[in-house]
Amino acid sequence: MKKKIPLFLFGLSLIAGAAQAQVRVEIQGVSSTQIPIAIAAFADEGVAPAQMSAVIKADLERSGVFKVIDAGTALSDTSAIDFAQWKSRGADALVVGSVVRAADGRFEVRYKLLDTIKSSQLSALSNTVTAKYARLQGHRIADDIYEKLTGTRGAFSTRIAYVNKVSNSDYRLEVADADGEGMQVAARGKEPIISPAWSPDGGKVAYVSFEQRKPVVYVQNLVTGERKVISNQKGSNSAPAWSPDGARLAVTLSKDGHSQIYGVNADGSGLRRLSNSNGIDTEPQFSADGQSIYFLSDRSGGPQIYKMSASGGNATRVTFNGSYNVSPRISSDGKTLAWISQRDGAYSLYAMDLASGQEQRLAVGATEPSFSPNGKYIMYATAGRSGLAVVSVDGRVKQRLTTNAGNIRAPSWGPFMK
Fold first, then answer.
1. Strands 66-74 and 35-41
2. Which domains are delineated in the chain?
3. Contact 202/161 with Cβ under 8 angstroms?
4. Which of 131, 156, 203, 209 could form a disulfide with 139 if both were Cys (CB 3.0 to 4.6 A apart)?
5. What's the rounded mean pLDDT across residues 199-210?
């Protein structure tokens, strides 16, 4: 079933330009060990609409992993480098680059990452981009630096989705860069929007809209603007979650009397019941390998997290500490479970190493967690406040994303883009 409703604005590509960024990032805390890196201004970077060195600095500082040293000068990718000088300034690595405006109006961005200890080159990139993608190129360079120096893929060039409640009659599904910049409205309506979830390829978002005066699950293509009703069964349709291959979704339906988990193909066909309990089963999340589903159930008397086969069947309990555990999320490597637990009178974000069962409290006053695609950070909504926050999985690095308009909730961190 395909349809377009005038109440909504569809398609990021259909909205002229990006709206002014409403999200501001504040950084608290750093990693236990920081990598000292000097970042020089790129030669002639002023010709581009985005200052490459500034974007890169902001990304690396936000990660908490790097101690950024301002080079205080511009150095191009062809400049002669005195490695001993930079080593004496405490920099283990140096970033240099240049921007050249082409005759067709595009920008050639070149960069090099240099090892000052070994006096060698670690990496280099050269790409030509339009003005629209200038900031994205800065994020991609920061991703490359992060990966080369930590061994983990960077997630600065990924995107986030969240719901912005501007007023009681203005709900917006917004998509932005991971740093909150470049925000665009993907959908908008007078009734609540909840539970956005990215498809694994980053081209679609599933979400729940109340525009039909009941919760209905939609999937929207962010390129074409087309959307489909995936589930509009009798009763409530909620909590969509994608399988890792993007072929299916798990949803929560109450069509048979109480909320249970169902599987459905990505085109809305093939509905099949997966859970079968006398309690409420909801908030499904596929495991990283797609073989299992983690979910919330009150079958033991209170809300706890369980795990079952992705094809349904018997479930095993996962959480045992605390009487209220909800909102399970699984890291991309399948090693870590994040969830919200109510303990000592507060909602807190916890993470569990699934191999050892060891738990760690990462943040107090948290709801609705979402892992970064590299599994190193978790974004969540701040309980009782109109904002989002990010914490590293070791709890050391914290960021707060605040907005000067509306109430932003329900974050979903998008996947790596190919």
1. parallel
2. 12-17+159-413 (2.120.10.30), 35-150 (3.40.50.10070)
3. no
4. 156
5. 97
Give the pLDDT of residue 318: 97
Q: Average per-residue pLDDT in the chain? A: 91
Closest CA to 366 of 411, 319, 332: 411
Bigger pLDDT: 408 vs 403: 408
Give the span between the Cα atoms of 290 and 243, in whole angstroms. Answer: 6
HEC sequence for 200-258: CCCCEEEEEECCCCCCEEEEEECCCCCEEEEECCCCCEEEEEECCCCCEEEEEECCCCC
| CA distances in angstroms from 244 to 266, 330, 331, listed in the order given | 12, 11, 12
d(CA 389, CA 402): 8
Cut 0.70: pTM above it: yes
Q: How far is CA 205 from the centre of its chain?
A: 12
* Tokens describing residue 93: 């690595």
DSSP H or E run through 77: none
